[in-house]
Amino acid sequence: MLKIKYPRTALFILLAVIPMYFIMKSPGNFIPIVFVLGMSVFFLSILIIRNQSWFKPILLGKWNFFSDRYEETITFDLDADTLFDKFLEVLPQTDLRIRYADKKKGEIMANSKISIWSFGENVYFELVPVGEATQVKITSTALFQAVAWGKNEKNVSSFLHRFDKSLTI
Amino acid sequence: MAVVVNLDVVLAQRKMSLTELSEKVGISIVNLSILKKGKGKAIRFSTLESICRALECQPGDILEFKEE
After folding, report:
1. Which of A28, A135, A160, B36 is within CB 3.0–4.6 Å of B7 for a Cys-Cys bond?
2. If you average pLDDT over residues B44-57, what whole number do you get?
3. Is this complex's ipTM strictly greater than 0.90?
């Protein structure tokens, strides 16, 4: 797999180069320039606001057809408090980075790194106590991809694998 | 569960808190808590050794087999 050392820098350079190309190709025509600049601003702003908690209902909304998602609900034989702390301990050991965590709401959001193949996926964890156990809904969603080519499933399965391994103390 | 973890009993006997034990053995409180509740999948010999050293006890004091 092709790996770029600084994917964000590459992305920004690309976003700067594309409008330049259109400007040089057709100097009098501003429509492609406005379109490309508009798209660049849109993508960049989504990349910035993706980490906010209020963006979750928009991203996971039923009218968002542009983001492929994968959902898995699992019940763990652990209380919600312990499980929440355990998740916070396990997540940094995976490819996911924690963006926000709210113990009261039982919510954690992490995302995968931006690469040349992906804008990174947002992974949401919702912990709901069910008696002495805890039901966890894990939703992984790709930002601008209607088809994520298994990246969402991979995020969830690799986290669960790491979590399972961490239960050997 | 056939193998019961008696970590809470030994901790009470030694009048030691989970936080103190965590600091002594270098294992996070959440992991010790999981172990104490018997929800862990397995325990490493190195973990057992450090807990026994910190609590001055034998592995048999912490782990006990009970017929289900």
Report:
1. B36
2. 92
3. no
